Amino acid sequence: MQWQKKMGYRYARDVSISYTTAYSEGSISSIYAMTSYQKRREPKISTPMFQALSSHLLKPSTRSLTSPPMSKNYLITGAARGIGRGLSRQLLQSGHRVLLLDSNESELSNTSTHLPQSPIPPSSFRTHLCDLRQPSSITAAAALAKDFFSGHLDVLINNAAYTAVVGKSHPSELTLEDWNTAIETNLTAPFLLTQACLPLLSKSATRSQGGCVVNISSTRAVQSEPNNEAYSATKAGLLGLTQSLAVSLAEQGVRVNAILPGWIHVENECQAADERGAKWEEGLTEEDHRWHLTGRVGKVEDVGRAVEFLVECGGVTGSEVVVDGGVTRKMVYPE
């Protein structure tokens, strides 16, 4: 097989680049178009070599970039309302299996009746009452996850948060009880649950890749309003925990990342809203939307897409994704 000394290497290199670029963009037609162009431009390459190179580079991928992700096992805390409920619904609609944890029995029961029922089989999700302030309750939840997912957990989403302290009390009046509740729920629980679920997430002899942890922090970790000390401190601490866990758990194949939601409107994601038939846009004004660089207030679907990205992108760990419509990038001056 003869190569043209001056042009052969350059041609092979150009064709390889053309193939790789086009294939990464998922366009087989683009591959043929570009290789046809290269062939016309430098016709001296031997036909057998071109065919061999084409055959090798055009081997079909096991999964296209546009194909839906394979079904995974998710555990979500704070799943009865708000962002957690919305995420649970999205994941079930995408064909995943979900274990929903929450401490509010009434809300959790209501949520279970509002999750997709058809064509979703009942075995796709399970709800469990869990007090994240109690280590024994966390241990029990991890044991349930082991049973429900047959020992294989793909994604742990630490979403639950104690928000009763947000904007409620001046630092001089914040009680130690509220402070401790925020710390235990928002920071200690994510660590303990990650610790308890680690055997279900780690890679092993029968599992080449480990799972991942997604911690739901907040833009209040980097910005604040008055009287947010307990909440902001825990959400900032969650970022430090995320970075440290990402380093510590790398050898076990477990990736750990964080999402920082801004204003995500979820007033329609609760029992009271269900009873009155509330719509997502209820309570929002045009000014609320204009405040965001994206032109609208955040939706739970925005957080869901960030979760999907972090789960599917195996090259990302120890990172933070801000989902706030660009608000934290704005400079605000007094009128």
Automatic annotation (TrEMBL):
Reading the lineage from the top rank, the first entry is Eukaryota
InterPro entries recorded for this chain?
NAD(P)-bd_dom_sf (IPR036291), Sc_DH/Rdtase_CS (IPR020904), SDR_fam (IPR002347)
S-adenosyl-L-methionine as a keyword? no
Among Pfam families, the record links this protein to: adh_short_C2
Which keywords, in A-to-Z order, does the entry hold?
NADP, Oxidoreductase
Keyword Oxidoreductase assigned to the entry: answer is yes
What terms describe the molecular function in GO for this protein? oxidoreductase activity
- Family named by the database record: Belongs to the short-chain dehydrogenases/reductases (SDR) family.
Name of protein? Uncharacterized protein
